[in-house]
Records
---
Amino acid sequence: KAGVTQTPRYLIKTRGQQVTLSCSPISGHRSVSWYQQTPGQGLQFLFEYFSETQRNKGNFPGRFSGRQFSNSRSEMNVSTLELGDSALYLCASSLVGTGGETQYFGPGTRLLVL
Amino acid sequence: AQSVTQPDIHITVSEGASLELRCNYSYGATPYLFWYVQSPGQGLQLLLKYFSGDTLVQGIKGFEAEFKRSQSSFNLRKPSVHWSDAAEYFCAVGLKEYGNKLVFGAGTILRVKS
């Protein structure tokens, strides 16, 4: 069974631009969560989607948004990029996201904002 | 506030020696508890998890962890470390009411010397 895939793997943007990252969950998984990983703040929860609905949201500004499609694939968007948005963005999928489920992480998208 | 503490930023052990990585959490209720490992440039891989029941849980790659409610701890152990265990280890907690949202510790970087 294929794992979680994230595209692109690497991305360079400049301040003020926007970016869209994509995550394809494991087949049959309906819950997708996104995390931001930085050296200073560590791993922080962004949001979780299940059945095309945002179910949980972390403490990030409105510039960070996401969506989920009917095939469970998810995208996250960051508008008006700031230098501090440089990070590794990880997505994780699980069957139904009922809490305590094993979440399978993708390799991440490394975003560099110049 | 909910928090997860991994007091050791770096740990160096000799190959073949035993290992213990510490994790403490601050939550009102008993959370779900996880240990993940991350190799450079990779996503997170689940080592083991605890929900309830037996407080000693076995995981992959010869790792185990013990939940101690009185100490709010979930320490990871391995009796004999291999060079391939060098990586960063993250403790994470979740709560049933927050779905798949995980709160991660800052991580412990494990170095293995031959």
---
Amino acid sequence: AQSVTQLDSQVPVFEEAPVELRCNYSSSVSVYLFWYVQYPNQGLQLLLKYLSGSTLVKGINGFEAEFNKSQTSFHLRKPSVHISDTAEYFCAVRITGGGNKLTFGTGTQLKVEL
Amino acid sequence: KAGVTQTPRYLIKTRGQQVTLSCSPISGHRSVSWYQQTPGQGLQFLFEYFSETQRNKGNFPGRFSGRQFSNSRSEMNVSTLELGDSALYLCASSGGRGETQYFGPGTRLLVL
């Protein structure tokens, strides 16, 4: 079975500061990795995904993530956050060749303050 | 292209009733998956449908069921509602199995 750990339930940060949201996963088989964002009263929006190739993945809204196989991590970063980035962020994994089932972490609430 | 649509957006039911939620995938998408989101359990996979067949099922009781129609629209049904079924139910569609999933806005169900 797969599992995803997001150790930080909340991350407060000042506007224009850099941020890193941590994600670690556990799986006995090969997985794909995803970050989704959820704004209040909305569904999930895909930020970025790692399927193969370069371990540094760039996504929308200036976010990027780096896949580290040895540390089984997929941390999300943004060099300068904006108030509009305030939202909940979910890391997820999907087994390669295993259909569409996503296993999610518990989420990290990013709160950007002035 | 229009995104994934879910109806209704909000629903209030009482214990013991049943409910049906609907999901219309992005045009051309053939795969639909359902997830339950609660504050306590987070996001949990319910089931996945592709070409009208259930391909995968999460660890939920038999009260939770679903189906997919020939036009790829999907419904999920919860019978004999319990208070713990109060949640945001999210539907996601993709072109096929193993492809990127796009989520709808969800149906918020409140069971009283």
